Batch of 4 targets.
Target 1
Amino acid sequence: MKVKIRKAKKSDFESVLNLIVELAKFEKLDPPDEKAKKRLYKDTFGKRLSFRILVAQADNEIIGYAFYFFTYSSFLSRKTLYLEDIFITQSKRNLGAGKLFMRRLVKIAKKQKCGRMEWAVLDWNKNAIEFYDKLGAKQLKDWIYYRINFH
Amino acid sequence: MKVKIRKAKKSDFESVLNLIVELAKFEKLDPPDEKAKKRLYKDTFGKRLSFRILVAQADNEIIGYAFYFFTYSSFLSRKTLYLEDIFITQSKRNLGAGKLFMRRLVKIAKKQKCGRMEWAVLDWNKNAIEFYDKLGAKQLKDWIYYRINFH
């Protein structure tokens, strides 16, 4: 089965939403509720594009998605490509979609003159960690991340 | 000495740049080089605003800055206020500028309907960690952060 990486279209929205829910369940985190799904639709196809979505297509099926946006490093004075989500549906692993996503994202980051590409992984997700280590990515071990939740 | 938090103006650029260099030295990281400083000026006052800068002013001096932008959570379908840098010059600590910055940032995040506010701190920066813990912020302990550098 040949996998193709491309920008998400409006007609992919339901498939991407299903994958987001599958990823949230896999990560044991809260998936988007109905209101959040509506906000996401608006934010995806609204005037102000604050993120981008790529999909992996195999035959006519959407088997994975990557959700990213650009942040900024004040020290480098360059954009960073931040990969918020990357997910391939459980039954379609080992088709190489993950590698294709990462290759495309690196290409996009370089084209956009980013200084870096960054992302986070849950510490129990051994398969993903092995995958990222093989890519040659470096763990940011000396930083502690903080969050305040408003909702 | 009364501290005022306000948006950075063009005339603050040199002061902010000096603080960025001071922060980089404090964090034992590479400060922006001359080319990076020029890029930063362009990106700060260019057409596409990809980040925002607040400054803390005491008397007529800029004593600190906060550098932030908005990211996005696909699960919440809400923006996140991401605080890239917050720094108060060494000689002007204990005037309350840090608290004033955080209070202002929380206000901005809520006004922008963000679901979260996030930032990172170096693990040896005990004073900052104590400050953030007191604020009631939560450490994201189960996430590993990855980076690929392009430059």
Target 2
Amino acid sequence: MAKTLLRALAGEAVWPPPVWLMRQAGRYLPEYRATRAQAGGFIELCTTPALAREVTLQPLRRFGFDAAILFSDILLLPWALGQELRYAEGEGPLLQPIRDAAGLRALRPQAVATAIGPVLEVLRGLRVEVGGATLIGFAGAPFTVACYMVQGRGSKEWDQVRRMAWSDPALFTALIDLLTEQTIAYFCAQIEAGAEAVMLFDSWAGVLAPSLFRRHVIVPTARIVAAVRARHPQVPVIGFARQAGLMLAEFVGSTGVQGVGIDTSTDPGFAVREVPGLVAIQGNLDPLALAAGGAAMLRETDAILAAMRGRPFIFNLGHGIMPQTPLEHVAALVARVRAA
Amino acid sequence: MAKTLLRALAGEAVWPPPVWLMRQAGRYLPEYRATRAQAGGFIELCTTPALAREVTLQPLRRFGFDAAILFSDILLLPWALGQELRYAEGEGPLLQPIRDAAGLRALRPQAVATAIGPVLEVLRGLRVEVGGATLIGFAGAPFTVACYMVQGRGSKEWDQVRRMAWSDPALFTALIDLLTEQTIAYFCAQIEAGAEAVMLFDSWAGVLAPSLFRRHVIVPTARIVAAVRARHPQVPVIGFARQAGLMLAEFVGSTGVQGVGIDTSTDPGFAVREVPGLVAIQGNLDPLALAAGGAAMLRETDAILAAMRGRPFIFNLGHGIMPQTPLEHVAALVARVRAA
């Protein structure tokens, strides 16, 4: 097992640490924008294997990252389940919201396998091309995916979602359970198509009260980790419950993840104290520090590296890279991490 | 010192605990909507003493809360400093953003005293009318106010703000310093007009990396607490750094606040372990649990009360009450807390 990222996820304190960036295939890259323009919509880009493969590989060619993550979207599963989805310019995703049992019943789990076929095709084509980098599979976590499915669009507060979780726990849990089962199958299919690790993105976990966090973030994540590991014991799972730093130790301890993403607001020293020494930590430079560049970026990078030295660690951002990030800042960051 | 809220802020484990709700003067109340319709805009409502007094008192009349908080807006200070501000329907506040030193110089600190005159008039009229409730003064914290001043509008990520904090720390710190000085003067004027406690709202503190949190949340809050307490040693300060639960112990320890708000995502048991026993904790029912009502709301309320029993505590929400909240849910909540 020579790949640095897999060694870190197996509990080894690889140094200098492997490095990749969330949303590294994104709008800050001119070659991404060019390929993006060739696809019709965003879902088309994710489901056209040649184009999705191309954008997945672009950041590796330019910066030599230690991982490539499947180019996809957390809403691919609702789309595959038949929920109406469109991307409005400047507004983000818009879905026909699910607010009752009839909305839930209208989903078509039997349609998923066909719909995700092209996504698995993306991975099959990538396995060899990533070379020494690790190919990571991708899915939104059940709670975050449910957020969009219930609210119908992005939100700061996710009021419809949280209200349903409190007032109709049976319905909301049924949706979470459906997404949990689908995510297990989706991850297993990704692994069978070539993914060497998988990462679960729970971008909105931080809005939940602790009792709902346990029920709708920790429980589904634990089920996904257990089921994926039962079928593929050698494939590590990275969990990322953004803005849920307070629950970090409980999240790691109760889910059994092999790696845990930490967001921008999490103090690296706190994470080192809270996370068991064999679980890899992944994070957490502020994407705006990277956009700003210069001395402040290097100082923050050095502080993160100093806190993480001697434990399994994967350098990353605390959230996705911003579109306005200058390319030379990314190059300077990678050089700094490699010189650690 | 007979008022329950002031006793809790003095370190006493008052039981049943005092109770009030963030944004208790708000759109969920029909009488608020009626008064709101009489004012032209939102700033007009805040600066017309008879109307601002009326909406401040409405929730006390209906629910007998233990505190009234000055009806105001965190953007009152930028407005008083002369920054162009309007409220667009469905979009929230829009300001002429400050992006450089010229923008900062264009602010007019000398205009603030006159502009806030009507706000102080609101407090003078309220002091007697609140009866046994505690009259709390209100201000946005420097970082959160700066967020709107730099970004120019609401945001999930506050990318312009964080980028300025990293790339031009001198400019951003100058803005924070200006707001810190103004907030000290504003709080002291509020106290001299009748406020018996003051609360500082840092709604967006949770987006910051720890090093920026220390510089732009903890340092200004500590300065405000020290300066206010130097002039008014008997007046307690409540700090509320929303979504910054990881920094809770450091925030409390380094700022010297007498009370600390905790948001929805903070585990009450964690807060009890992290906050020194003489500092009052204020929070933290999920506003969506209140909107949902019923058994889940009562169960969550009971869990918070059980965690907080025996220490200084003020029952509140973890964030402002939602407009769609049924009035009978609020009444049921208050009854449950009073029966603790």
Target 3
Amino acid sequence: MPIDFKKELENAARSMILVHDPDVLIKTIIRALVDKAGIEHASVLLYDPKRQTYVLSLSGGSLENKVPIGFASLDKDDPLIRFFRERNNRILFKKDILTLDSAEKALKNQVLTSRAKSLLNDALYQARLLETVVCIPSYFREDLLCLFLLGKKTNGKAFLCAELDFFSALASNMAMAIRNAQLFKDLEIELNKKHQLFMRTTIALVAAIEAKDNYTHGHTTRVTNFSLQIAKRLKNKNKKMINEKFLESLHIASLLHDVGKIGIPENILNKRSALTVGERNRIKEHPLIGATILKPIKELEESIVGIKYHHERPDGSGYPEGLKGEEIPLIASIISVADSFDAMTTDRPYRPALYRDEAVKEIAKLSNLQFSPLVTEAFMELCLEGTL
Amino acid sequence: MPIDFKKELENAARSMILVHDPDVLIKTIIRALVDKAGIEHASVLLYDPKRQTYVLSLSGGSLENKVPIGFASLDKDDPLIRFFRERNNRILFKKDILTLDSAEKALKNQVLTSRAKSLLNDALYQARLLETVVCIPSYFREDLLCLFLLGKKTNGKAFLCAELDFFSALASNMAMAIRNAQLFKDLEIELNKKHQLFMRTTIALVAAIEAKDNYTHGHTTRVTNFSLQIAKRLKNKNKKMINEKFLESLHIASLLHDVGKIGIPENILNKRSALTVGERNRIKEHPLIGATILKPIKELEESIVGIKYHHERPDGSGYPEGLKGEEIPLIASIISVADSFDAMTTDRPYRPALYRDEAVKEIAKLSNLQFSPLVTEAFMELCLEGTL
């Protein structure tokens, strides 16, 4: 008995293990069923554990745009679902598959209780509304994970027994693939949550630390914003220079660039009168203190470089090491421009804020002396466009 | 032609999608091959992207304990691997499968260049050392992901053509399952890394904040340690009370319990003489300040409760809300005992440290007044055992 679509569907199914988005996976499966097996339409009712309902995904077949109202999802207690969730109903049909024919035979069967007949009747009513002639359930362990609903064959003929067997095996494989995709997605969501938790906690702690310094309210947020914009501009100009990993390191480094100020006494940070040389030297320790605080965290290696060197200057007059020109890492050069621009445009104890245009001019003038020419160029472009 | 093991192996393979540990997966696969298909031994050479080598996993079959030295892994340039990595060698054999027979025929074939013959000879030499009669490669995209090596059939007969076809299809499915497991494992590793990054960064920032307070060096680390030990003891006594999520929340809450001190001026924190009522009230704000700092972080909800209420007392004399008895959340009650015990046993500006035994007695005496009786009981048990 030739089932010519079998190989093709099996091959399609094989590669689906690596489709880790449940939605894409289901759409691909039902599309393949319709296209390869010559079925008018196919759909899947998939269990959503969060909403505790079975959500309908539909093929692009002939049923599209005419799904009955209320069928976007079915409740656990809807007859069609309940019929397949109750184990004793399943044993009536070969390999758990329910066809319209077998259902009608079963209804005439004396073995069925009147309660079971009534449930089957209600289930068939729902199946018919979805123009379904075959229902194939897939169980994960003992739970109904999904229910495949097939329409008629496009050639008008009845399904062969071997075809139904094959669909049943396929549905079981697909259930595994769907479950796999769900687990994958869950893990991705967890990873994303953990990332958010890390970023938000860091932001909260940095904001609390920043609050000790009366003159820097919102400074960290603005510097982080400026830094990321400059980096994205540099990426657009030369993709190779900047990748996702760099952007993440820069994000963290910008958030933490002044964390070392926690090691400077409050009375120096908030002093209104002129600082002594000794006090100024204390403040200049903050990049090194910041780097020291984070040193045990290997994953922050690149960020630490940004924190440690964000007060270096190309002419060698910066601190802590007096690095020159290209010796200064890009990540630090970006923070340097962002940091200085924000410092210039906000009030400080020893001077009022510069106007925005004055600050931009000042930075342009200091390119190659205090600031990296490459970073200054990107910064100027953003300013001229009004993006920054 | 009956291949009676086929169904069993197919069923085994199906459920393997959900085995997400690559090592377990491979061991299960080769075990199933040996047991179900009646092969003397089977093994897999699996590509390890980090080490850039092919690592051998062996069945428990007859080859065990006699793998030739140097075969625990094969280099990319080892002949057996190179033969399958070079695409032009593959086309000589049906479905990429190399059998000893087909190889010997190929060596007599005039089409092969002398270079190809030499490589095949070297590959066969390695295969024979592993007592392999059939090699089945699995490619992911164009890369050799793994190479299945089969020993002789236990009944001494030659492999049937249909059997080889089946193994080839199975190997391809298995390659997908292995790839899936690897991706899953990679994601789990990333999640774990992100968790470590979050914890380490929090610890580093908390240590930096703590350093502002001259009298609390190492306090946070000790309180965290005590809290977790008490919680684990409570879990042993009554599993329902404490789950993994609670332990994680407690861990974070313990680390951050004094984070609100960042909002208290340094001169109050480090004052050597007696505090005024006003100064004492400022210090009493730290649980609320801590909760406020972290409030935007929804994931930390349970931890925030621990931070906010860790100075409440069952007799209602605590702060910030004067909660009584059972009103005080367990997470806060645990930190309260851990925090007080550490404070009692370390020097403070206003008094020297108590001896350990004195502190334990003091806490026992204050059970139900200052400390939760439940937590005190667990704490006392740990102290008596010498665990704490």
Target 4
Amino acid sequence: MKVCSIGVGLIGGSMALALKKHFPKTIVHGLDASKAHVEKAIALGIIESEAKFSDLSNFDLVIISVPVDAIASTAQKVLANIHENALVVDMGSTKAKICEELANHPKRNQFLPAHPIAGTEFSGPSASFADLFEGARMIICEPEATRLDLRKKAYQYFQQLGMELQFMTPKAHDQHLAYVSHLSHVSSFMLGKTVLDLESNEKEIFRLAGSGFASTVRLAKSNPTTWSAIFSENKEEVLTSLRAYQKNLSLFEEVIKNNDVEGLKQLLESTSRIKEIII
Amino acid sequence: MKVCSIGVGLIGGSMALALKKHFPKTIVHGLDASKAHVEKAIALGIIESEAKFSDLSNFDLVIISVPVDAIASTAQKVLANIHENALVVDMGSTKAKICEELANHPKRNQFLPAHPIAGTEFSGPSASFADLFEGARMIICEPEATRLDLRKKAYQYFQQLGMELQFMTPKAHDQHLAYVSHLSHVSSFMLGKTVLDLESNEKEIFRLAGSGFASTVRLAKSNPTTWSAIFSENKEEVLTSLRAYQKNLSLFEEVIKNNDVEGLKQLLESTSRIKEIII
């Protein structure tokens, strides 16, 4: 199989490596807005060589892993250039706007909107690894809009990579992900900023940080380009989840202000169910 | 050496195990508000047997690892019962109120306020392990108020456990810890609550959570009794750090609302220094 990976960062690079691991005859070419990323991806053996949009008619599978606000326009360029049995899959962390913008595309049935629930706080080709998707969930949206033979192929690829498929509407996807992923990133980025803002003597303060702080700000290391696009694309759902979070922080503030130790304990206990859910 | 560990949870239990590991002749007895904890600590070999406040004259070292709002009163009971060469050390995560309440105690010079920067999100005797303090920092407050021979002994014990000593005023301790520890816990507890509140179909949603969510809500598993006490004892500093955090969340909200993608990217980039600080 001939694959073109558009975007050779953490997700696109790992997808290239995973496909080559599980389908040994696969050849992957790549494309990236960053020349340095392309060179790095070639040097690391992630892709064989650089591709061009005008060459896309040679590929059977095109994976799009660029910032979410560039996915729809990239997909349009890709669809314009592929052969009639090629499959195009995007890996975006938001789905509603992308699906909407491509809904009426004449080649919509060659496109499958997907989102792997996998990643780390690191980015770029050098963060890629073949087993990133092993055991992870792959969310698929609007499968009925993709040609049956093509979507069946996609399912087979993902399952071969060790992924579990889950089907959701784009809207449900974006709502849920706002809570369990995007809000965690907002919280972490702003927590990192708060501590950096207020502590002039950095070394002093960070030497006092235990593993708890490291854990809560880990996501603040994530790629700002990737995440500013996700927050913008999923603006309404992110704002809704953020307001719910702010309300709870205000509730916490009130309870503390009122010296209500029992109320505070109850408030903390109300979240202890997390233990049973997240191991 | 004869040690009494008052509180045999994660910290007191680990301190008992660590002292026995590094000082093989040590005998540790224990005391805990929870009968079940005492029994568990004996069964796990953390302590030899249960102690009583009235027996404390037999011990050379008393470690206090109870919720911070009970430390000062516990220390008073302990100091009333020890012999004249015994040392009492507390392990509390807050220091200003404890130091203040004990400042004029007639046996203040047998007490040393300390705080190990070590812990996990788990609690109770079964969460204890001997190497918890290896390589960790031990913050010491007001050393000059502790008798020279006794504080020297304490430093030797902690260093033998692989800890690095750091001296701070109680106020500076509480200010810094509010930012790098207490605020992370507030953020994590309330993030956990927000997601639990809003998602009625729990299984569905948590199956979508990636490792990022697990990382940011990890601290929400922490013991509510321990943490409601810490937040209450360090109320003013926690509120100050929380307000700074809320301000940054509002700033984020504004930037998103205004569709200011470039501003958003800059905002996220402003925290990327975290990468160089937290590895």
